[in-house]
Every structure is written in structure tokens, then in C-alpha cells.
Amino acid sequence: MTGRRLAVSLCVVLLGSILAACGEASGPPTLNWYINPDNGGQAALAEKCATASGGSYDIAVSVLPNDATAQREQLVRRLAAQDESIDLMSLDPPFIPEFAAAGFLRSFTEEEASEFTEGVLEGPIEASTWDDELVAAPFWANTQLLWFRKSAAQRGGLDPSATDATWADLVSAAERADASVEIQGNRYEGYMVLLSALVSSAGGEILRNPEAGKDVEPAIDSEAGASAAEVVALIADSPAANPAISTSDEEAGRAAFQSDRGGYMVNWPYVYGAAQEAVAAGSLDQAVVDDIGWARYPRVDEGLESRPPLGGISLGIGAYSRHHDLALDAVRCITSLESQTEYMIGAKNPAARAAVYDDSEVREIFPMADLIRESIGAGAPRPKTPYYTDVSTAVVRSFHPPSTVDQQTPEQAAELIVDVLNDRVLL
């Protein structure tokens, strides 16, 4: 869908069991829901909730580009023009502060916020809150785990599932086993996910006062920032590093992890299901899946618990929508315990509500369900600022390529953040 106008993006309007054209004027109001690409799970929930409304509304699903930054750009352009056709949005958490600060989202009342956060894990709630108000409803959440090949762990003498492993422990064990440590090191948002998690796990933060907008004070030039840089340099300088570390993303890391040299990898839970699908397709041996273990995200400091990355999707209601009440009802249906359970089973994306992980079918699909729930609850959001895109780009640019990272890198990142936000440097 990249490069297409949203007006002509894939659109499914559900009128009971009849497929109708987008923008049809007759019949009940149509709520337009702009979603991130998935395997059809959100479209299925749109159909379910439209039917459950008893004819009060229909839901049109429009699919945004694959890239999260491109999703944000397309929505911002239309919302800046006060587009009334945007009723519901599936939002990547880092962009929520920008949308909220710009007045693009309908905030929830205290009563509504209580409803949408009951039984929800703390990480998604924090990521969906801006200026002490819930501005988006947690829908599904995500986090990264440490994945390891049991055979490599045995050769290297380190079982991460039995100990709170640090990054230094992993690198040493991988070197002993002649195995790899896979991270996302490309110059893109996935690298920012890693850097933010490293700083948070070291007890620090990238921004000191993110709510200050352009007057924000960078906090990355700190002991925690130095620890994060030390981890990146340790991996990049190790023979355990992927030779293509500077261009590695989630899929490249997954492929290397499943190879004969695979050892350790940080990645999202989807990789386990993807490996099983590869076995079913005949492109991967079942022995590889049987060899995969999992553990909590690595520690930076052995004395501090890790703060795993936090991702997922929250639902926002467009501030200029003409159907706020109907959109609110749709959000209730889409984010309900039942719907989140269905979505986790069907789309294989972790839920924001804690009780979903107790479902027997969920636990069969995700044998690491308890660990995912624990990691989401302990997860740290990326910097919450209306200028997130600029901050993220500045940090990634300073830390890239990983092989150049040293103890001066955090200071350089802090200076670049300030220069970019004050229009002294263009990215």
C-alpha cells in the first residue's frame, strides 16, 4: 500500500454479510478504521463488531503502509486537514503523544479510561497515556524476548532460562559456542527499539522531561547511556556479531538465528509462530523449532532487572470524527477481553489484557505466554514526546553503524537531539 492515497487503500465495508462499496451513503453510518497491516485479524473484528452493533454502524477497514513511520505520515497529513472521515486508528504507541498534543485524538473520560484499562497490563496503559489522560485504548501489546538455541546454549555453558543473563554473558557464551548474537542494527526504528531498551534496562532514560516538547533535555548522555553504548560496542566488536549487523532487521536476524550458526537473538514473539509456519511449508526442519528456547530480555547490569521493549497497537478515535459515540462503542467491542483473545489466537499478536494469557488455546499457541505477559508488564515505552520521530532519528543516526559506537556516542546523540529540535540541523 506504500505510495497510494489512503482514499484508495484497501477498504472493506461490512453490511451484515454483504460487501458494499466504500463511502455508500445509504444505510447505517460507516466508521472508517485505519489499521496497520496484519493477517486479516482486525478486519475480522470489524465484521464481528459491526454485526454485534445490531445495525447501529458498519466498519470500513483501510490498510496503511507496512512501515510505522509511513503510517504516521499518512494519518498526520489527513488529520492536520481536520479530516472527518477518520473515525478509528490503530496507532503505534510512540506516535500517540504527537497525535494527542496536536489535538488529533478524542481523549477518554475518567469513566471510559477506567473501563479501557481494567485488567490491562501496565506497559500498554503507560504507552497510551499523555498528559495524565488516556488518549488511546490498549488493543494488543508486544514485547521482545531473548530467544536461544538450546544446542548453542549447551555448548556455550549458559542457559538463559535458568539465570538472569546479561548481554556480556550472552556474548561470552556465544563466542565459546561459535554461535551468533542477533540484534536489530539497521538504521531504522527497530534499532531505536534496541537502544531505548538498553538505556531503560540500565536504569536511565533518553529524555529527562519529554513533555517539554522542543525544550526537552536529553538524558542519554549519562551512565545509563554509556552502558547502552558499551553493550552495542561489545556485540559489534565480537566474532558473535552478524557480519551484516549494520543492515540487520527482525527478519534478517530470524534467518540467521535459524541457521547452523544461530545462538541468541532478541526479537518479537512472532518469530516462534513464523518458525512453525516454515516447518509446515517445508522450508525449515522441525529439529530447529525443537531447539528453540526463550527467556526474559537480557540485563545490561546484573544488579538491575531488564526493561524489555514495548510495542503493540492502541486504538485512537479521531478528534474530527462525526461519530464519536459510535466509535466509542466500536472500541469497546474491539478491545474487549473476548476480542483480544480472538485476535491473539488468530493474528498471533500478544494481548494488552492480562487475562487473555490464561486462555487454554492461547497457552497452546504461545507456550511462553507467562513470560510474554511478564515482559509486557515490565516493559519500558520508547521516549514519550510529540517530537518522537525527530528524537528517534537523531539517536539512531548517532549510534549507526554499531561498529562506530563508543563512549562519546551518547554525548553526540544528546547534542544532535537538541540541534534537530532547535532547527539547527536537518535530518
What would you say this structure looks like, in words?
By secondary structure, the chain is of the alpha+beta class. The chain has 18 helices and 13 strands. The strands form 3 sheets. Strands 2-1-4-3-5-13-8 form a 7-stranded mixed beta sheet. It has a 4-stranded mixed beta sheet with strand order 10-11-9-12. β3 (30-35), α1 (41-52) and β4 (58-63) form a beta-alpha-beta unit. α6 (150-156) crosses α7 and α17 runs antiparallel to α18. The longest helix is centred in the middle third of the chain and has 14 residues, at 223-236. It starts with 10 loop residues before the first strand and ends in a 6-residue tail after the last helix.
For this structure, the CATH topology of the largest domain is D-Maltodextrin-Binding Protein, domain 2
CATH architecture of the largest domain: 3-Layer(aba) Sandwich
Task: Give the count of helical stretches.
Answer: 18
Structural class call reads: alpha+beta
Q: Evaluate the radius of gyration.
A: 22 Å
Query: Spans with pLDDT under 50 lasting ≥5 residues?
Result: 1-24
Shape, principal axes of CA atoms: globular
What is the C-level CATH assignment of the largest domain? Alpha Beta
**Strand arrangement across the biggest beta sheet:** 2-1-4-3-5-13-8
